[in-house]
Structure of DUF58 domain-containing protein:
Amino acid sequence: MSDPVALRSRAEQLAAPFPPLLAGARHLAASVVLGSHGRRRPGPGDEFWQYRQAVQGDEARHVDWRRSGRSDLHFIRQKEWQAAQSVTLWVDPSASMRFASDRKLPQKGHRASEMALALGILLIHAGERVGLMGHDLPARTGEVQLMRLAEAMERPDSDGEYGTPEAREMPSRSRAVFVSDFLGDLSPARTALTEAADRGVSGVLLQVLDPQEEAFPFDGRTIFESMGGGIRHETLKARDLRDRYLQRLAERKAELASLAQVAGWQYSCHHTDQPATSALLWAYSALERVI
């Protein structure tokens, strides 16, 4: 018979990574009060959508006689379609996302994972199927899937400087969410969005930046080194780089917004010193707009 003490010890070691991320994501999701996840179009469901005038061929059982009694016409009461859909998440696992300029701030990757997992919680509770790109996790529903998502996000396996989304992992006519700092080469993201649009996939680009990356508060002699150690630049006059840096950052944001617009996606930028709740609510609402 196996030792129950040893078994519990192994189980606690296995579960140890989950509470911080999962608990934080659940708390974040709980702070966003949302109703049912309708499709904003008529179909099978429980929520009232609209009345329409009855036409030849409509069955009498579908007529709303109370509404029709106030008119000389007959009206059909339509309900909002509430069918489940698939949503694929991509959270950049690269070294760049491990950056935090202050100990009081979360790493970009932790904030990205927390928001993505919280979004997954909201979607799954609304009856959606949620999957995770890059971890062999196709879209599924249920609490077990949430645990799989949490485990995968807690243990990113990429050592690359910057991450790359893969459009082939997104089912056709589905939705997707890309969460990254998008500071690397944009060619892979551009390719993924083009393929997504060709396959009828709509979605959301959420850029996550540290406030220091937005402000560039450097002066004098400064050594810039990437989180992965593969990129290094030393300058004696960091302040002289500030205007060019801010211009290129603004151009990067504009390009991301343009790519999203062309593909029929939504784009927003979130900073890690800001509340995650507002970004989560925006992402959830944005997914509604791209249906």
